Amino acid sequence: MSQVNPFHVAVPVHDLAECKTFYTELLDCKVGRESDHWIDLDLMGHQFVLHLDPSLDPKTVKQHCNPVNGKQVPVPHYGVILTLEHWKSLAEHLRQHKIDFIIEPYIRFEGQPGEQATMFFMDPAGNALEFKAFADFSQIFAK
């Protein structure tokens, strides 16, 4: 695997204040620059930007899913690959905060190349998040 650099991703949100609270309080993101229309967040070392789209209605966001390992995985989605210890801690933190998981934390591809811990949930704007972990990071791209 080549050197890993921070990524940049921007997502639409219906309510900057509500989503800022979700990401800062639940996922411990730090706030960088912000305006009335967008907020830069530090999502575990990556530049993650919330952009206001007042026409967005989270109740009507259509979520496409594809089957992966017997589960319906929402597309698009985004997240961070964590250490297994960090992933377990985050999963427990989310359970304590009664997050409604789309896919409960579990081990995907168990006993196969690319075995990984994964979980999916939504932010308040209807954006799907996946946080995953590998016991062995050399398995990230294993076939």
From TrEMBL:
<dbReference type="InterPro" id="IPR029068">
    <property type="entry name" value="Glyas_Bleomycin-R_OHBP_Dase"/>
</dbReference>
<protein>
    <recommendedName>
        <fullName>VOC domain-containing protein</fullName>
    </recommendedName>
</protein>
<dbReference type="Pfam" id="PF00903">
    <property type="entry name" value="Glyoxalase"/>
</dbReference>
<feature type="domain" description="VOC">
    <location>
        <begin position="5"/>
        <end position="134"/>
    </location>
</feature>
<dbReference type="InterPro" id="IPR037523">
    <property type="entry name" value="VOC_core"/>
</dbReference>
<dbReference type="InterPro" id="IPR004360">
    <property type="entry name" value="Glyas_Fos-R_dOase_dom"/>
</dbReference>
